[in-house]
User: Fold these one by one.
Assistant:
Number 1:
Amino acid sequence: GTRVLVSTGVDGLIYYWDVASGDRLLTASGSMPIQFGSDGRRLVYGTPTTWSWTEIAPPRGRSQIDCRDGGDELVRDVQFSEDGRWILVAKQAGVHVIDRRRGVKTHFTPLFGAVQARFVASTRQVIIQGRTAVHWFTFDHELGRIMSTPSRIYEPQGGQGAWLERGSVSPDKRYLDLILLDGTRECLRLDDGGVETAGRFPELAKARQVAIDGGHAVYWSARDGHMKHLNLDNGRSAGILRETGATPLFSPNGRFLLLSGLMNHQIFGVDGWTLLRSQSVRGRLSGRTPPGTWTSDSEHLALTVDRNRIALHTALDRSAKATLTTPQPNAYSVLQFS
């Protein structure tokens, strides 16, 4: 079937692209894509006051859900259930539950400072990560409700403080990897909340950006502003990957690393940390370069390269597969593959 790339920006326009041909399939307005469903046909997106979902390839309808809750309107995370019916929307004030089939909000769990919410695979549990604790709740899959009392709460031991940012879920969806402000690494088992491995890495303390994949951590050092690699298994470093800051993103298969910086994107091979290619960014995009996005098979990635163009690449190919040109400037593109 067709692989679809969606891009959007502060201009309010959303573009649907055919990755194979580079053709623009559809243009819509007034929304921002958040996440595709597991079958690649459904998309959740936001408007200034509501949240909606739509069928894509081809679009066949949508429903709108009001998720205003008294807090700010920034959405931290959106996750589908395994069967695609239920959607968790994490915001500053708490977590909304949406029934995708009926297009209605079924529940709201207040939990100020929520960072992300996830269904625990093959269980009836939902976890909500805040800045200083992880909460486990029982989820009613029939009614679409999160039980009001948490079944378990995990907090860092010894008053070590908050985590740097949202944790990374392992590819097998069994663990939540968390880095504390002081550089302590905690790996939580999602099924029972146990800490399976832990260690302290002073190099990661107060890092501005951290990406973790297995035993590898890439971070933006708060000490000297460089992008560096750290082996979490033995504490050794591969040295400086980049002398200026960037947003790190590992490919889903863990073989590649993308660093999206102010002036260019760089792709590294994790084996040996070899720079494979660099894609320049044409002109400063108002002080930041949006990070790229990978396909689930790690074969392709999409990069914003200037105010009107998105380049599609393969990680090992020296040339871009296609260049997508938007009719209007779209510098803050949020990119998502189906």
Number 2:
Amino acid sequence: YEITYGDWSSDVCSSDLDRARLTRMKPAADRRMIGIEELDALDLTIWLGRGSDAASHLGCNQSTISRRSNQCLEVFDLRLHRDAEGWPRIRQHDLLQLERQVHQLHRLREGRHLRIDASLLAAPLLQGATPHGWIAGSLNQLGWQRPIRLLEERILDAWITAMGQELSEASSSVLLCIPLLITPLQLACTADHPLLHQGALTLNDLVGLPRLAPRQGLYTRTEQLLGPWREQHRPLTLDTSPRRRSGLVEGPMPNEVLQYATRFSLAHQRRLQPLPLELGVATELTLVMSRDIADQAAMVQLVETLQERAQMAALADLGVQGRN
């Protein structure tokens, strides 16, 4: 393994570096070794958003996570900062990326501590039983830009997205998309909503009602399919970022609020009921991973497990079409 990939516990595999990069590195005597624990602490904090969540996954306390993260940052002369939504970020660093790639290969070879996350509507595929060898994130990710970046940076190993977003040309060259299932997009509400018992509805019946949805621009393809109707609602922004971790919406949520769902997701959200209305828009749940690890045994097993779950949902008549 070390002959092929170098010493994965060090902070550099010198065969992968050119002279310019080597001259920017600290002298060997001044550099500390970076181990799996240190990089795990940093990357899980970036992925999950909080050191306390990373500590829970790694079975230690938050102060240990902070110390290990800082040790990793010091090796690469980096600083952790938070973006506008409160997510931890660091600047791109070539040597750190080499470390992450080798650490990912180590996780795959060991078949444990692999990292998977999902968007809100795709979460039921993982709820209740995370595949063996995997740890799951919050399972309420919104949008696709951030998960794509985490995959490309090797912080995340796999991600399940809804809404069928198309990757950019640059991302599609390094990431592989595997369709799992297709299910109709629906509007849902609580059982005491006044519209629920009025019989068949039209879109005109919903004009002016508050609608809980991701902020505009996160799912452009689905927004275009829904058309101008989506603009005729009082918007409540669904927000699952660390900035709004205490609640899913900006401000109080009235009882008559409408939410997006699918028959598949509603089977796991008993407090919500589907409105008697067809939107005419389907959403596709897709597994995304790096192309260069798709043939690893752990990834092949993950695909088979998720495809089996999708087929079981289809057989259970949850408004799902399995994809092979």
Number 3:
Amino acid sequence: PAHRLMAALGVAAPRPLAVALSTELEKCSDLLSEAFVLQSLLDLPAEQVQDFDMLIRRAVSYVGRDTEEGRNSRAIGARLVRLGDKALHALCDGFAEAHAGAQKYFLILFDDIYRANPSVAAEANTERKGLAPELLERAAEVVLHAIETASKGVRMAAMESRFVCDVEIAEDTRRRLAGAVVDSVADFIFRSEIEKIETTIARLGLPAVEPLLERLSPERGKEERVRAVRLLGDWALNVKAPRGQIARLQQTVNEVLRRLQGLALEQEFPDRGELLCALGKLVSSPAASKDADEVITRTLLDAARSSAAPLIPRALEGLCYVASSR
């Protein structure tokens, strides 16, 4: 009822209500009252509030201080999502000061704001204004810092971020993100969680390749090498050429194919079945060369006809990817 009353007053007399609520906000001595006043102010048109940017910062501060992490924080968070870039900027500013539980919610809000306000590049053919690349870059740096330095719970939440795959984020940042996520994926226990994180890595685009190739070297652990092979295959299924960079994508795909073909000659590679499947995924990419297509297809057919029972189903899986691309 109180929120409905504020909404009605906001329609009838928005400016006087904004002044009264702003005065009341300075007097709030408990979180419950502060949450009510913040929600009421955030529901008003921005031009009616004297310092709307300050209000956004106060709302972010509230979410960062609320240890109950209950309905009020979520209600304020939902209102912040509607505010787009200004809210994202304030969330980046307030991230370090928030407690761990609030930081995880901040990371969820990063993705929610991104989904509600796609980047400028994603919205290039529409009249809708999206998030600026420099703001996405800053948010991505916050996520990267969290993965590298935060507690395990916050690191896990940061690795689930989806907006970091946006092509407007600098390639160096996405490359560092891919490396940090690969190094920390062992924090996850359940297979479903690991698969979700691996999908994020695969969607980071061309910058994800370098850190994955580094993890193919023999001095790396067996599990790490197999994961890198699997991720390179998934990367080939998800990657899209940045505008004007088709030749670069072709070169990268063929370089990855050469590396994996070299591994296929290693009898000691920990999981040859995973390697065969990844080869099929890579050669199914439109960027793969025709020569590689012929060689990989022959390799997969030989494995499928072999007597090595564990390899046969993975070779057939790789052949399915090859066939689906023709």
